[in-house]
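Hey Z.,

So I finally got round to the fe (iii) ion thing we talked about over coffee. Here's the setup:
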Amino acid sequence: MARTAARSTARITASVYTSHVPAIGAAIDLGKTAEPYWQPLFRGYEFSRQWLREHRPDVILLVYNDHANAFSLDLIPTFAIGTAAGYAIADEGWGPRPVPAVAGHPELAAHIAQSVIQDDFDLTIVNKLDVDHGLTVPLSLMCGQPAAWPCPVIPFAVNVVQYPVPSGRRCYQLGRAIRRAVERYDEPLRVQIWGTGGMSHQLQGPRAGLINRAFDNAFLDQLVADPAALAAKPHIEYVREAGSEGIELVMWLIARGAMADADGGAPPRVLHRFYHVPASNTAVGHLILEDA
Ligand code: DHB
Ligand code: FE
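And the result:
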């Protein structure tokens, strides 16, 4: 059958990468995006919002980390997939953000869980989950302030808060397993995968405020050009170079592993790349990669 024939299965169309700083959400919610501090940051996402409007997916698989809001120290899943029909916005201490609730996609999520677990990755199944800034700030950056989010979202939570955290290598391999799962789903859905968190930042201790532009830009270069090599970077190097919260960057390797070239296909096209310092205590990085 010709490759141009209509597909009958789902596919990954693009991956999006972005930091998730909570102050960005507050700036949007409080109408401060045009202020001199914030304007250069939001300008870096103008292309992205237009692109998303023109390339609206059917589902977003959003890889993020919870910040002890849904999961406490009582229970710490390394990888957790949301299989619910919908998700409430978490109250992180000052009330839930005034953003739409998140609609889920239980059928695709359950299929991914089945496929990825049978592919030897242990996922925790989450049927009730309040989503925090790790998930809502990327949505706000990419969508602005809509009355409803543009499509259903499957939350995919990764523990990067309490040690031990998963390795970059495992995250990359997990992304490859997610791609295989999506491609086995019998409905022609266009699925985007988003990797969020990072870039360099440290929120506590003597090194609080750490930013490492050289590390961040080298990470972006290598994420595009040689993600398999980047996946070999040990977690301690993220901590040393990008700060204690810079370890959030391993989540980007899940999204990158779901692109075609990780499965022997053609490399993705870089549609957009942006880097800005600072937003609150954090370096902000952003990429959009589209599969051929
Ligand atoms: C900040 C960054 C984060 O990733 C986070 O989860 C909380 C706060 C910050 O820069 O303020
Ligand atoms: Fe964070």
